[in-house]
Amino acid sequence: MFIRDIRHTLFIAITVMISYELALNTTGLKQFIFYGPRNDIISANREGIFSSAGYLSLALIGMTFGRMIYNELYFQLKESEDEKKVKSEIRKNKESRMMLKLAM
């Protein structure tokens, strides 16, 4: 996996998003993206190249929320399975006690 901890993924996504917005608004990057010349391979593909930072942050946020939902559902399922095991053990113990009482 790319980043293992959910908190780090969200922090990186927000950092990339804020950095990209700051770069767009405080430098001449926005003017270059909108009105720059198309002389070489970088300037010809400038919209796609520079927007990849925004797409990266969106993908990381999606990964974060996906992991949060998955972990919540997984632990709920695991807890319900554990509860079923405990209940079946209690039932078995009750049955064995009843069998011992009947045998006496």
The end-to-end span amounts to 60 Å
What proportion of the residues is helical, as a percent range? Answer: over 70%
The secondary structure category is mainly alpha
Order of helices and strands: HHHH
Shape descriptor reads rod-shaped
Average pLDDT taken over every residue: 83
Query: Uncertain segments of ≥5 residues (pLDDT<50)?
Result: none
The largest pleated sheet is described as: none
What is the number of helices?
4
Radius of gyration: 28 Å
Query: What share of residues are in beta strands?
Result: under 5%
DSSP strand tally: 0
Describe the fold and architecture.
- This protein is mostly helical.
- The chain has a domain at 6-76.
- It contains four helices and no strands.
- It has helices at residues 6-26, 29-35, 41-44, 46-103.
- The relative contact order is 0.10.
Any descriptors?
104 residues; mainly alpha; rod-shaped
Give the helices and strands, then pairings.
Layout (H helix, E strand, L loop, with lengths): L5 H21 L2 H7 L5 H4 L1 H58 L1
